[in-house]
Predict the structure.
Amino acid sequence: MAFLSSLNINGSALTAQRLRMSIISENLTNMDTTRTEAGGPYRRKTVAFEAIEEGDFKSLLNRALGKRPAFGEGAGGVRVSEIIEDQSPFKTVYDPTHPDADEMGYVNLPNVNLLQETVDAMSASRSYEANITAINAIKLMATKALEVGK
């Protein structure tokens, strides 16, 4: 049973990191987009995670009674709680020939930073790899446990 809950936890993390990579990819794709359907330049998006509070009846009852859960009790994984638009200011550049330039010749560019997106992508990739490693370790332990029974 612990094997299955461990796989569920790691699986939820893989799903969350995959969505994070998708959002990072969207940010990089729209790095030069100065005109969106909403009007104005593209706004960078970030992903917020939250813990999934799940568990058996005992852990739910203990939580309702205000008792502190035991180690590993009620752990259900992680999920994306929301996708947030970054409200930091846009970059402005002087380019009077640009079709989206204002009357002073300045263009608002998206608030996407290539370096930040690269670091975020590396972080998401490492987290994804760590969860794959954990899943492989769980599979190996399950296989060894089955071999003990032979």
Remarks:
- The chain is about 45% helix and 20% strand.
